[in-house]
Amino acid sequence: MKCKIKSQKKVATLSTKGLAMYQHAKIVQAQGRSKSNYYLIFHKNRYINTIKADELKQNSFIKRAFDNGIVIHGDHPAIYELTNDSIFPCSKPRQVMDRSLKMQPNIEQLIILSYFDQVIDSAKIHNEFIKTARTFLQNGKRQKAYTALTLLLQMEPHHHYAKDMVNDVAFVDSHMKPEELEFYTPLDINRLKNLFKEQNRTLDYLILQTHRLTNRFSQQAWDAFLPQLKTYPTSVQRLTLLSMYKHKPALMNYEVFSDALLSVVTSDEYIKLVLHPTFNHSIEPKQFLSQLKQSSNRTKYQIFQKRSHSFDDRIQDFDNETKEIAIRIIIESLLDTTEIDTILEWIESKQDNLSYTGALQQIKQLQEDPDKQETLAELYKKFHAYSKAIACYKWVMDLDPTNEAVNKQLITLLKEQDQTEEAKAYQQQFIQLVKYEQ
């Protein structure tokens, strides 16, 4: 997935690499062309700012988020939802701090400020918590002062001044409310699951279920995950499932995951997945043929060159007709670029009696016969090797420019291959030659 940031009037497109959800922040990691790391920081799904950092400070909020939070590797609907169709402005750290200070005393703004201890001196951030706590105390808001200090101690447990203030007699009756603890403190997975459902935090719930599936698959987590994933565009479903598979290939052992992934991938990806040695599910032969036919010639050539055994294993349970079709699809993709001897050797290694082996052997024989190029062209056409067929027809036309039957075949084939200009040229050339002959 891609996202865009704007800095000093310049827009840069970044490739997203993952997401961390920690407390009530979401951080999207992305990379630029130079592989520099950027971190787009969101609070309650609201964009705050972007930080560029190739090395994270120990114990910085971002470092803790990726070490201790719920981390998603690769693409995900949450990244799509947070970053889609937006250009995110980048502010300097000083501007982030100034915005926060203008809104004080405000606990939520302090929490947002704490996200930026990668680029703002943590001592300054801690000092703002202390100043805000004092302001609350002066205004008689003892509970809020206690909350500010408690949150500071979560970030910096050894902050002596905050400890002394919390232990002051003025806070004897104060405590963090349960909902505040749940709001700000990382919880265990089961508590988070219940909390997100209760608060209808659907995006957070989807992130959590993805995390659960890539750590330990369960049908319950899958049943919660899939319906929500299907609400997103197919392209997002594909990227998400591929990212999950890349992070944890063992997910393909579960047929429900395999079926979902195979239903959204490209033809090339489908073939690569089902020919993987560890793929152990049955597949529908018709679907396999359809995907194989639509796959790129590069994929077919890789089967021919590197994955022949996997291909044979995959089609071994197909009926003979389907098996023949599958092999023929590979052959047809090769004829324009591969020596016929090499193709015949490949067929022989399969020890299958193919109905079209004789036609391929005939192609081999006719290749060396200049008088049989028209017949050879017809054979090539049967295998959809149209470039070879065109070359044969051109050979005949070079020897016999007034051969009307071959000229028509050549022009028709050129038009079918969208080579209309060349078809017109041969047509005009033939007309002129016929006139001259007359």
UniProtKB/TrEMBL annotation:
It comes from the Bacteria. TPR repeats lie at residues 370-403. SUPFAM superfamilies: TPR-like. Keywords: TPR repeat. InterPro entries: TPR-like_helical_dom_sf, TPR_rpt. This is Tetratricopeptide repeat-containing protein. It comes from Pelagirhabdus alkalitolerans. The lineage of its organism: Bacteria, Bacillati, Bacillota, Bacilli, Bacillales.
